[in-house]
Amino acid sequence: MDFISYKRMPADLGTHQVDEVRYDAAGITVRGLLVTPKHSVERIVVYLRGGKGQVGRVRLGRMLQFTNTSTLVFGPYYRGNNGSQGRDAFAGDDLQDVIAGVEILKKMYPNVPVHLIGFSRGGIQGLLTFQAVQAASYIIWGGVSDMHLMYEERVDLRGMLRRMVGHPKKLPEAYQQRDALSMIDHTAPPILIVHGGLDEQVGIHQAYHLAKHLEAKQVRYDTFYQMGEGHIPRPKALSEVLQRIHSWMDEVERNK
């Protein structure tokens, strides 16, 4: 198992090579961005983007926030986006794009810890896949943890959700399939919850809801709340978040 093709991207980085890759995900050819250290790979971070279409698309600058000289970062575009075949299903069949990408990386770099980071919409993508891919840890950042809560709080997104997922009353099974919390138990890898108290895109009650569930299921988790920040932290707060994420991954690997 390997990526189907690599397309070198015009990024002049001294420590990493940047490629757009194509790969098979359950019979669909999808794409993602791969940032690979030029020397040894000692950590893999899979960045699960937020948004839809061009909103929240995978960007190199974002991925570089999670690198060091020995960290590989991969960001799947999701099917139906940026040249990937298929149709984006918002935590439906597109979950295979995450799983297949991680499986390829694990085969290429066996015994290297894999951490998932899910931002915004990527939060639910990660919650539904981090156990399946046996991630070392999962970081959910300003992330959706409950689709019903998202439907209720984001009136402006209800039309999009009805098109992509369905109406929660008319298609309850579609929302049940995306009920990540019901699938998480005490065997789950550790989770770091990052959220801004002033987040208007994904309310912080999504984080509280997740934390309460993890507590009940005796899952190891920690929180990093920035009560004065919104969906995207300001520069100083962003630096603090990234420091916490890097230290979290270090802690998890030390305590493995």
List keywords for this structure.
about 260 residues, alpha/beta, single chain, protease, 9 strands, nine-stranded mixed sheet, 8 helices, Rossmann fold, about 25% strand
Describe the overall structure:
With 256 residues, the protein is of the alpha/beta class. It has a single domain, classed as Alpha/Beta hydrolase fold, catalytic domain (Rossmann fold). Helices cover 30% and strands 23% of the residues. The chain has helices at residues 60-64, 95-108, 122-127, 147-153, 158-164, 172-177, 205-216, 235-254, and strands at residues 5-8, 16-25, 28-37, 43-48, 71-76, 114-119, 137-141, 191-196, 221-226. A 9-stranded mixed sheet has the order 1-2-3-5-4-6-7-8-9, sandwiched between helices. β1 (5-8) and β2 (16-25) form a beta hairpin. It is globular. The mean pLDDT is 94. Residues 86-252 form the Peptidase S9 prolyl oligopeptidase catalytic domain. Pfam families: Peptidase_S9 (PF00326).
Give me the count of strands.
9
Shape: globular
Low-confidence stretches: none
The CATH architecture designation is 3-Layer(aba) Sandwich
Strand order, main sheet: write it out.
1-2-3-5-4-6-7-8-9
Q: Oligomeric status of the shown chains?
A: single chain
SS element count, helices: 8
Give a quick account of the main beta sheet: strands, pairing sense, barrel closure: 9 strands, mixed
Fraction in beta strands: 15-25%
What integer value in Å does the Rg equal?
A: 17 Å
The N- to C-terminal Cα distance equals 27 Å
Helix content: 25-40%
CATH fold-level label: Rossmann fold
Write down the domain tally.
1
Order of helices and strands: EEEEHEHEHEHHHEHEH
Secondary structure category: alpha/beta
Which homologous superfamily in CATH is the superfamily?
Answer: Alpha/Beta hydrolase fold, catalytic domain
